[in-house]
Amino acid sequence: MGEMKDADAMGEVGNPTCGDMSYIYIKVEGDKIKNISFQTFGCAAAIATSSMVTEMAKGKTLEEAMEITRNDVAEALDGLPPIKMHCSNLAADGLHDAIKKFREKNKS
Ligand code: FES
Fold this sequence. Notes:
Layout: E1 9-14, E2 21-29, E3 32-41, H1 44-57, H2 62-66, H3 70-76, H4 88-106
Bound molecules: FE2/S2 (inorganic) cluster.
Residues 15, 18, 20, 42-43, 45-46, 87, 90 line the site of FE2/S2 (inorganic) cluster (FES).
């Protein structure tokens, strides 16, 4: 958890349902996520899913990390109550946004 000062890219996503925010920072080496961290300003479910997505994505290739879905994150936490499913959007979407920004920045 926390800001990554030397991140290669930062994903940023807001939850339209509640107005909460999440930032996902990635450090990439080759095509793998070498380091990842998050700052989430939201509910406990949003923080838990953000934390889980960092565990799931670390060491994966960018391609593999792009395939992590909101449902994968929720399932890794043994599910979320239906009313909290929208909270898992922050984690997966934030990760995907970080990867997209990294790719945009580094395309040749
Ligand atoms: Fe806002 Fe959960 S209530 S992310």
